[in-house]
Amino acid sequence: MALQWMILAYVVAAEAAIAVLLTLPSPKAIKSRLVSLISLILQPCMFVLPFAAFQLLDIYWKSEHRLMCTGEICTASERDRYEKAIYKAQRNVILCAAACILYWCIYRICKYYKEIQSLEEVEKRYKDQ
Q1: What is the pTM of this model?
Q2: What angle do CA 91, 96, 99 make, to 5 degrees?
Q3: Is residue 6 a contact partner of residue 88, using CB atoms and an 8 Å limit?
């Protein structure tokens, strides 16, 4: 079960690194090549969204069917295990949300950069006329 969270953590780390690369100032030629490369990678990497959504549904299902340990009948170790499971679930929800939000941010940055490039080309054509 921990493998899927490790994979999602690596994906979020890679998305964060890509977002940083896209937002760093760089020469126009390098930036355009980087944006075109990342745009090509974005479509196959869209698996992150349904994967994260499935993991969120799994967390929700487990939280609905988890045994509650809030009364006096629980031992200290059971209560600690219950609280640890709650903290892990909260961490995993944040991880899933971060994966989706970072993917959307990278997509929008690439789209905005392409729109800026097309507007610059139109402006250049008008200046040449």
Answers
A1: 0.83
A2: 125
A3: no
